[in-house]
Every structure is written in C-alpha cells, then in structure tokens.
Write a structure and sequence with these properties.
353 residues; alpha/beta; Rossmann fold; seven-stranded mixed β-sheet; 7 strands; globular; binds S-adenosylmethionine
C-alpha cells in the first residue's frame, strides 16, 4: 500500500517499509495483534502496520510527532466537523471534510507567533509572510475552537496534522530547520494549502503517547515492540524546532539567528548514554518480539546492540544497503549509502530480572 508522507524526516522508514514488512513476514507466526512503534516520528511504520490489521501503540517525545501520530494512528475516518460547519454555515453538500478544509484554507491571515518569528517580519526566512500568517490564522482558530467546544479533540489533531505537513512543504530550508535559506526557494513561494489525510479504518482502539520511551516501556505490553531510536548526535528537537513550536503554539522564548527553542536532549543521541538507555528498554520490554532498526554509522556499535538484544533471547539480523538521508545543503559525505539493520529477538527470558 502506497500513501503520501509529507514531512521529510531524518531517519524516516517510509522507503524501508517493504524491508520491514519482509522482516515481519519472516518472524510472525500470525498470532500477533499489538504493534508498538515506540519512536514513531512521522508515523510511517505505525500507519503501515495499522493497515496490515495490527492494533498500534505509537509514541514520540516530540509534540509535532505526537500530533502526526494522533491523527494517523488514532483517527480512522475523516471527522464530520458538524459544529464548525453549522456555526459558520459551511457548504452542506459534498464531503464534509473537503468543505472544512476549504474553509480553513480561505481564512484571512493573522500576524501571530509564526509570522512574527519565522517570516521576514521577524527577520527570519523560514516561511513567506503570507504563508506564516495563514498558518497563524489556522493555528489560532483551531486553538480557540477546541477551547470553545466548536471542534473536538479528533478534529483538532486532524487539522494540526494537516497543517504540520502543509507547512513543512513550504519551508524555506535545506530540508531540516537547523537554518533557513537566505533567499526564498521556489517551493517556499507556493501558497500553504491544507490537504485531507489518508486514513486507515482497519483497526480500532489504537493509542498514541507523548512520553519518554524509557518511562512508557514500563507501562505497556505488546506482541511486536519496534524500536527506531535516533542513530546519531543529530537531535530531533533541534532539527525540527519550528514544527515543535507550531504544534505546541506555546510562545517559547527563541534563541539566536535561527530562533531555536530549548528542547529536551535525547539519550539516544549521545555515545556515552545510548547503550544504557537501550538496555533499560530491552530489559523492561513486555513483548513477544523486539525489532530494532539501526545502521552501521550509529553511536552504538553493531556488537553492543546485538549483546543487548541477546539479554532476552537469540538475536537474529536482517540487513539492507540504504541511500543516506541528505539535506539540500551541499554537505559532502564519505559514503553515499549505509547498511540498514533490523535486529530481532524472539523474547525467551522474562522482563527486568
Ligand atoms: C529515527 S526517528 C523515527 C523515525 C520513524 N520511524 C519514521 O519512520 O518517521 C527517531 C524518533 O525518536 C524520537 N525520540 C528521541 N528520543 C526519544 C525518547 N527518549 N523517547 C521517545 N522518543 C524519542 C525522536 O523525536 C524521533 O522522532
């Protein structure tokens, strides 16, 4: 099944879904029902296994990732926007979701936090002024509508997810938000436009969390625990700080030329902390299978990862050559491709002994 994934994300497994599916086919005995995507990012993996009929638990420490997953994993059908449509006398014919999206796309712009900090009005060129003001109008409207009961929580996350994907498409960056370009590139000049989401209605009662993986692991049970932690020192909080602020809309204080907000550091990005954090996860996993994606350039070595997995049973390896994630910034790499591993263990030994 092919679907669009809009956010261009470091470590996204979108183009490795076929490989992950192959691995799943090799380890599954057909009895698995619950799949946990503990470092869910864009939600590409959880969405895939939801479509395959597994009940998905998804989690990510970043709020923008939580918002994307809240929509794709927890929502099964486009919400009706009943109250919104009746309050604003939005078209009653045709699909209600299209009418709601058209209404949001036509809101007049507002000079809010996004325009005042991430557009030329705030001396930063992440977005054009028009796009930033349109994003502010949508963000402010859904915030007020949720508070006033005009939209419900599902409707709120549906639009927030669509906004995050749409604004990422018109970002004036070399793919991540560590810096903006000095001149607007062609894609950044296109008008921001919300799109309906491609949802799957296959499984109910999926659940999404916004927690540190090492805390949540102690509270959940599943058949397949899929781990896709950061591989290296590149912090998601730094590389996607603008999306985090748009998702939270919490008026943070911003630092320096790039307008970075403070963000939580991940232990998986630090050579001296990642292995211990992984060991805690693996020891505490209440799952039949553990799958871990990692490559040959991560902060943890292949042998160390394998030893940690071996704490719970006999580890097995699946591997695939993979083209590197590249930002559009002319950075040179020694190698164009890496080896992508999936470590697997069928859990034999009890948790946290
Ligand atoms: C390699 S990416 C996951 C990509 C995802 N599989 C996809 O296809 O989009 C790693 C994710 O782990 C998240 N993360 C980092 N540290 C975390 C932690 N301690 N707990 C939960 N999530 C964490 C990051 O925010 C990031 O989204």
């Amino acid at each position: 099944m092919v679907y669009l994934t809009a956010v261009n994300y470091i470590g996204s497994k979108y183009s490795l879904l076929g490989f992950l599916d192959h691995v799943y086919g090799r380890i599954s005995d057909g009895s698995e029902k619950v799949f946990c995507d503990l470092f869910a990012g864009t939600g590409a993996v959880g969405r895939h296994f939801k479509r395959r009929g597994l009940r998905v638990i998804a989690n990510d420490i970043q709020y923008y990732a939580y918002a994307l997953n809240k929509a794709y994993i927890e929502i099964n059908r486009p919400p009706a926007f009943k109250e919104l449509r009746s309050r604003y006398e939005i078209a009653r014919s045709g699909k209600s979701i299209d009418a709601a999206i058209e209404f949001l796309n036509n809101l007049s712009g507002a000079k809010g936090f996004i325009a005042l900090n991430y557009s030329p009005a705030g001396d930063r060129l992440y977005y054009t002024e028009q796009n930033a003001e349109r994003a502010d109008a949508i963000r402010q409207s859904i915030k007020c509508w949720l508070e006033d009961g005009i939209i419900n929580e599902q409707e709120y996350f549906y639009i927030l997810c669509s906004l995050l994907e749409a604004i990422d498409q018109v970002a004036n960056t070399a793919s991540v938000y560590g810096a903006y370009l000095k001149k607007f590139k062609a894609s950044a000049l296109r008008p921001l436009s919300l799109k309906p989401l491609e949802l799957s209605d296959k499984v109910r009662q999926c659940k999404v969390f916004n927690r540190d993986a090492n805390e949540l692991i102690e509270e959940i049970e599943c058949d397949i625990l899929y781990l896709d932690p950061p591989y290296n020192h590149r912090e998601y909080g730094a590389n996607y700080h603008v999306l985090e602020t748009i998702a939270r809309y919490d008026d943070p204080s911003l630092n320096g030329v790039t307008g970075m907000r403070n963000y939580p550091r991940s232990r998986y990005c630090r050579r001296n902390a990642a292995l211990e954090a992984l060991e805690h996860l693996v020891r505490n996993a209440k799952a039949k299978h553990i799958l871990l994606s990692y490559n040959d350039e991560g902060v943890m070595s292949f042998d160390d990862v394998r030893k940690v997995l071996a704490l719970r049973g006999k580890p097995r390896i699946f591997k695939k050559p993979y083209s590197r994630f590249k930002a559009d910034n002319g950075r040179q790499y020694k190698r164009d491709s890496t080896i992508e591993y999936v470590h697997h263990v069928r859990v034999k030994h009890a948790a946290a002994w």
